Amino acid sequence: MSEKLVAIDFETANEKLSSACSLGIAIIENNVIVKSIQWLIKPPEMYFRPFNTNLHGISEKIVEKKPEFYRLWPTIKKHLEGNIILAHNASFDTEVLRKLLDVYQLEYPELSYACTVILSRKVWKGFENYKLSTVAENLNFTFRHHNAKEDAMACANIVIEAEKKLKTDNFKELLKKTNLKTVRFERHDFVSIG
């Protein structure tokens, strides 16, 4: 399989999905995290909800001089394009990416994605819940929750541990064994009915 696996995690400034203030990625090759990166991002609107800041520790002051997403996109895109993206609660992180691409009118990259919440439920039965912190605790790895890079690495570790547990040689085999599907990343065109 030629694609790389890239775990991602966005942190947002407020309730708007386009308000990303941080992105972390962890790149997996041959069942090992080979690279992890974090970007601080100046959101399109500089409004930070106290709840969000308390969660991830990022405030207006921290990102006011950081680049906006569109300036970072050429670099980020190189890591995502043509690969399989993994996220814990992938519907959230992929929607943040969609909203950012829409706000800045950027072209959608070719990629597909899979959700490690769904993967975790299929591989490990009986956890109290399948939040990232709970799964990580059950798999005995520690990380700083709500730090985008650390969350991406935790997500990557879930896939690595799932492959070990199910004794698969690659992600394609893991997908087959768990009946997990990847989803093609594309624009959502909402059609009004009636």
Features:
single chain; 194 residues; alpha/beta; Nucleotidyltransferase, domain 5; 6-stranded mixed β-sheet; 8 helices; 6 strands; 40% helix
Q: What's the gist of this structure?
A:
The protein has 194 residues and is of the alpha/beta class. Helices cover 40% and strands 19% of the residues. The model is unreliable at 190-194 (pLDDT under 50).
Structure description:
- The protein is α/β, with parallel strands linked by helices and 194 residues long.
- The chain has one domain (5-183): Ribonuclease H-like superfamily/Ribonuclease H (Nucleotidyltransferase, domain 5, 2-Layer Sandwich), CATH 3.30.420.
- It has eight helices and six strands, in the order βββαααβαβααααβ.
- The protein has helices spanning 50-56, 60-63, 69-80, 90-103, 116-123, 132-138, 148-165, 171-178, and strands at residues 5-12, 20-29, 32-40, 84-87, 112-115, 183-184.
- It has a six-stranded mixed beta sheet, with helices on both faces.
- The longest helix is centred in the last third of the chain and has 18 residues, at 148-165.
- The radius of gyration is 17 Å and the shape is globular.
- Mean pLDDT is 94; it is low at 190-194.
Q: What layout of secondary structure does this protein have?
A:
Layout: E1 5-12, E2 20-29, E3 32-40, H1 50-56, H2 60-63, H3 69-80, E4 84-87, H4 90-103, E5 112-115, H5 116-123, H6 132-138, H7 148-165, H8 171-178, E6 183-184
Parallel strand pairs: 1-4, 4-5
Antiparallel strand pairs: 1-2, 2-3, 5-6
